[in-house]
Amino acid sequence: MKEVVNCVCGHVNPHGTILCESCGRVLDETQKDSKMIDMRYEGSARRSQTYNKSIIDKIWNFFSSVKVGVSLIVILLIASSVGTIFPQEQYIPPTELPEVFYEKEYGFSGKLYYLLGFHNLYSSWWYLICIAMLGTSLLIASIDRVVPLYRSLKKQKVSRHDGFLKKQRIFGITKTDQQDIEFAELKKILESRRYKIKEENGNLLAEKGRFARWGPYVNHAGLIIVLIAGMLRFLPGMYVDEVLWLREGETKGIPGTDGRYALKNNQFKVEIYDKKNKEDQTFNAAIDKVGTIVKNYQADVTLYEKEGNTLPGEEAKFKKVKDHSIKVNNPLKHDHYALYQVDFKLDELSEMSFNLMNKNTKETFGMITISLDDPKTMYKLKDGYSVELLSYFPDFEFDENQEPVTKSPIPNNPAFIFNMKTPDKPEGEVSFVAIQQTLEPLGENTYKMAFAGVDTRNVTALTVRKDLTLWIFFLGGAIFMIGVIQGAYWNHRRIWIQRKDGEIWLAGHTNKNWHGLKRDISMTLEGTNIDEPEDQLEPKNLGELEK
Amino acid sequence: MDKKQRRLIMRTSILVLLGAALVFSLYANFTKEKVAAVQKGEMARDFVLTDMDGNTHKLSDYKGQGVFLNFWGTWCKPCEYEMPYMDKQYQKYKDQGVQILAVNVGESNYSVKKFVEKHYLTFPIMIDKNKQVQTAYKIDPLPVTFLIDKNGKIIDKLTGSLSEESIQKHMERIKP
Fold it and tell me: What mean pLDDT is reported for chain A?
């Protein structure tokens, strides 16, 4: 294989060059007979097309191919859209098993969806590999094109070979004996149209908007930055997405902060629009139509930071950082963390009160209040009366042996076994008390625990977010857009004007928007004696070319 | 160095770099749940908790002994099932340098006390009130047992209820 191609003009081109980087002569034998030349990448040698020896070159060339890149995009597009047909695994109800849920909910197609792994598509190995391959393709294809393109645009000469000019899409010859005057005139007009003029041996090259050629590569750089940002999320400490359930009055460590921050829920409230409220009366019609309309979900919290280093479980000193009212779209932000209001539970039981009562006389002997988080064993009442708590079931049910048990430690359905000691029953009477249910397992009692009231509290759920990669996503997105704009709103236009004994040759090329280039040329030539060049791809000229 | 060689080196290094990025992403993606959990082979994180009798237990004080670290809740049936077995083995192994620490995941003193009385448990039981220890050990679901050897390394993580026989085997594994 030849390493270089020598052009007649004396320029040494890299192997695989189609058009001489310097004079524009057609070097590729297969293109010599075509009527028009292929101006893609300036006819420069894309390295990928030329070296194909080692395995590294073969891999390189595979990724350099535009066909491969487009295929990857198509595969990813189709896969990504299939992934939206049914919900992803993380969005199905948390109590459902995915292997059952998809079939139950969507039938056979749901089962297939699950079996093919589409329920967890966006983190499946093959999807990630496709994304990585697309990233590789973007990078390699760009390197392979931008380097030679930059080289040839930088090296381009003003004077071009006849063949190069003739085979441009816009081309025309004018016979004139006033070349000098025409040239001076043309130069002035082109300059006023903001073309950059280069002169050499009395020939002209007018060029404008070359930077539009870099648009696609800027755009690719933006995409690669976005992919890198996605990758950085895997690094520890870069990305946190957790949920924190917090009862009123409760203080808990914030997950994802490794015990550094704790949060206290002072109050959680849901406010609704109220017709009695003056400022809400604007919405009366809507309230009548819909009923209850929520105005605000709000958790009043206090953020604490741990002082010093303590072990988990060790008593730690916390200092208050700040108070904040977390509302929807108004998170608590601190140290890159943000806490968003995401869910709630109203009126969870916190305390229950009972009166010790004589069933017959309805006489009461004092009230006990049981904290459902921290019940006591013994509740003393006045002279000789006391209540012992024998058992407590926060989330009561009967198990398969008809024994009372608790399903969870959350007081959803509390039940108690009391031993009521009174002067006339010093041994006590046992009573099982659940919500709207009283059992006397050891025979008829004289006394009972009469329900006297409850205290409730609200629970808020907050999303804990930290994302140090967000700005990189934005940066990548901005660069992407700059690339798009650069390539879309500017065109790289060139006009070559050369003198050949008694004639002026004019050729033009643009990477897009040929109409704009033709308009530029025709306005430039207005008032001069030079004929407007022809568009060799126009139907009437195509016929001539055929001949 | 000639041009061809330079190109080969250039291409190879770019491809290696991209390959490494791919391997990293795949690895990170598939271990993201595991990374979230504490794994065997890691050093056990130190903690301090007070048991029901008011004694303070610091994990690192048990260096040189094996520690059978169990996380449990009173409502959790499988936890309840293994507790009496743990107690039997505790009686057998406590003089052979194996300690059992049973961490309740933060229930009321009342519930834990009643539970201990019901099962006559003798090993140290501590309540992780502010859930710092279970957060550090990323506990979910219950029961979970960590076998910690005399050097403070987690040699195994056991989920689900254990039979008496398997508890005995595990005690042997961490016996110094």
Answer: 87
Q: Is the pLDDT of residue A404 over 70?
A: yes
**Shared-domain flag, residues B101 and B63:** yes
A374/B108 Cβ within 8 A: yes
Together in a domain, B156 and B69: yes
A139, B14: Cβ pair inside 8 Å?
A: yes
CB-based contact (8 Å) between B140 and chain A? no
Distance CA A49, CA B4 (A): 14
Looking at the structure, tell me whether residues B149 and B119 fall in a common domain. yes
Same domain for B55 and B110, yes or no, is yes
CB-based contact (8 Å) between A136 and chain B?
yes
Q: Which residues contact A465 (CB under 8 A, 6 or more apart)?
A: A240, A241, A331, A337, A338, A339, A340
Closest-CA residue of B relative to A132 is B22
Q: Does A406 touch chain B (CB under 8 A)?
A: yes
**What dotted CATH number matches A182-209+491-546?**
3.30.310
Ordered by start, the domain boundaries in chain A are: 46-154, 182-209+491-546, 213-235+473-490, 239-347+461-472, 350-453
| Yes or no, beta carbons of A311 and B58 under 8 Å apart | yes
B111, B167: one domain: yes
> Is B169 an 8 Å CB contact of chain A?
no
CA A6 to CA A401: how far, in whole Å? 96
Q: Which segments in chain B show pLDDT lower than 50?
A: none
Q: Could you give the number of structural domains in chain B?
A: 2
Find, among A205, A186, A197, A187, the residue nearest to A528 by Cα. Answer: A186
Residue B11 structural domain: 3-35
Any A CB within 8 A of B5 CB: no
Report the alpha-carbon distance of residue A303 to residue A320 in Å, rounded: 6
Same domain, B170 and B87: yes
Q: Is A231 on the interface with B (CB under 8 A)?
A: yes
ipTM surpassing 0.95, yes or no?
no
Four-residue CA torsion sign, B6, B8, B13, B18 = positive
Q: pLDDT tens digits, residue range A111-150?
A: 999 988 888 888 888 898 999 999 999 999 999 899 888 9
Q: Is B81 on the interface with A (CB under 8 A)?
A: no
Q: How far is B128 from chain A (nearest CA, A)?
A: 7
- Report the gap between the CA of A19 and the closest CA in chain B (Å): 22
Residues of A in contact with B3 (CB under 8 A): 3
Cα of A399 to nearest chain B Cα, Å: 11
How far, in Å, are A195, A332, A455 from residue A299 at the CA level?
63, 10, 19
- As a whole-number percent, the residues of chain A with pLDDT over 90 amount to 41
DSSP lists the bridge partners of residue A305 as A261, A319
Question: What are the tens digits of pLDDT across the range A64-93?
Answer: 999 999 999 999 999 999 999 999 988 888
Shared domain for B87 and B167, answered yes or no, is yes
Q: What is the mean pLDDT of residues A369-375?
A: 91
* A486-506: burial string, b at 16+ Cβ within 10 Å, e else: bbeebbbbbbbbbbeeeebbb
Q: Is the predicted pLDDT of residue A541 greater than 70, yes or no?
A: no
Segment A246-253 shows an average pLDDT of 89
